[in-house]
TrEMBL record:
Metal-binding recorded as keyword: yes
Superkingdom, taxonomy of origin: Eukaryota
Family, per entry: Belongs to the iron/ascorbate-dependent oxidoreductase family.
Organism: Castanea mollissima
Name the record gives this protein: Fe2OG dioxygenase domain-containing protein
Pfam families tied to this protein: 2OG-FeII_Oxy, DIOX_N
């Protein structure tokens, strides 16, 4: 890409660096009262026109009630829930769980604490602003993929790797420290329950994913989508799939998340106390295509109130002895041959960190032509 647009004299890299260097994030831009957004946030017409295709119907992603699963031995009921989870993961790749056992007070405190972090003056947050901790520790920044993506998006994020190496808790900003630690614990419990149900849906032992260390490499990201003065020109988060096993997402009441279902984009309506679960690329691969990693995006926020979401991505902690992963051998047979080849940790990392979040290229890259 040319560093300088010869016709207009627009130096995109210079503008990106100035924005990044100011450490003010989009929250800072929004708070400054700007009425038009910097040009590097403006998305191309193809992306923007696709935003007009959002579903206006009342469909929502499946809602699964986990009451009766947690601490219960009612096997018939469990089988019904396993079926629901399996069906949702196969057809939607996304579902919302309710009655998951996490008290509403913990949920409210988490949202409140992440909002409080982002609400601080940007001079206070600036000391956490960095990009070099993308693969470990704590990092606060605007657009993790700022320099990799084609266009920037209207969100800032506080990111903390909660495992597999224990996080240095003192590295977390004090304003949300206890809440982040508590949320990690609660969300991991929910993830464990969901992973058990997902395993059973594949005919595997309930504890298989835990044994494969899928609960260990967790990254927690507290996003803030502040008011955007030109929401029709940019996005909150570019359409993408999540790379890991599963994601647990908690959001406040400000809408914006959309999930692709068939040819339609479906609005995910916030359900009070509900937690959104979605399958990542890795789950699609190891399940040999049974569970789907589905594209999702967030609209730029047109409401004066910030949208807050807290996601925990469950990634791979350990790679097999030879450093490869692929469809689980237990799921393969002559009727169901592998549709993906094995891939290495290096391929996974290089693929993810070499580009913006907008392409599902790992899955495409390792698909076998059966
Ligand atoms: C993500 C993501 C959606 C949201 O961080 O991968 O899809 O609602 N976030 O913040
Ligand atoms: Ni995502």
């Amino acid at each position: 890409m040319a560093a300088m647009d010869a016709t207009s004299g627009y130096d995109r890299m210079k503008e990106l660096k100035e924005f990044d260097g100011s450490k003010m994030g989009v929250k800072g831009l929004s708070d400054s009262g700007i009425t038009s957004i910097p040009r590097f946030f403006v998305h191309p017409p193809e992306t923007l026109s696709d935003f007009k295709n959002s579903s206006s119907t009342c469909t929502n992603i499946p809602i699964i009630d986990l009451s009766g699963i947690i601490n219960s031995k009612d096997n018939d009921h469990r089988l019904k829930i396993v079926e629901q989870v399996k069906e949702a993961a196969k057809t939607w790749g996304f579902f919302q769980v309710i009655n998951h056992g996490v008290p509403i007070s913990v949920i409210d405190e988490t949202i409140h604490a992440i909002k409080a972090f982002h609400d601080q003056p940007h001079e206070v947050k600036a000391k956490y602003y960095k990009r070099e901790n993308e693969l470990g520790g704590v990092m606060y920044t605007s657009n993790n993929d700022l320099y990799r993506a084609k266009s920037a998006a209207w969100h800032d994020s506080l990111q903390a790797w909660m495992g597999p190496e224990p996080l240095k808790v003192a590295d977390l900003p004090e304003i949300c420290r206890n809440e982040v630690v508590a949320w990690d614990k609660s969300a991991t419990e929910v993830a464990e329950t969901v992973m058990e149900l997902l395993c059973e849906g594949l005919g595997l032992e309930a504890g298989k994913f835990k044994e494969l260390t899928f609960l260990d490499a967790r990254v927690l990201v507290g996003h803030c989508y502040p008011y955007c003065p030109q929401p029709d020109l940019t996005v909150g988060i570019t359409s993408h799939t999540d790379p890991g096993v599963i994601t647990v997402l908690l959001q406040n009441h400000v809408p914006g998340l959309q999930v692709k279902h068939g040819d339609e984009w479906v609005n995910v309506k916030p359900v009070p106390g509900g937690l959104i679960i979605n399958a990542g690329d890795f789950l699609q691969i190891i399940s040999n295509g049974e569970y789907k990693s589905i594209q999702h995006r967030v609209l730029a926020n047109s409401s004066k109130e910030a949208r807050i979401s807290i996601v925990i991505f469950f990634n791979l902690a350990k790679w097999k002895g030879d450093g490869y992963h692929g469809p689980l051998p237990e799921l393969l047979s002559s009727e169901k041959p592998a549709i993906y080849r094995n891939f290495s940790r290096q391929e996974f990392v290089e693929n993810f960190y070499s580009k913006g979040i907008d392409t599902k290229s790992l899955i495409e890259k390792i698909k076998l032509q059966n």
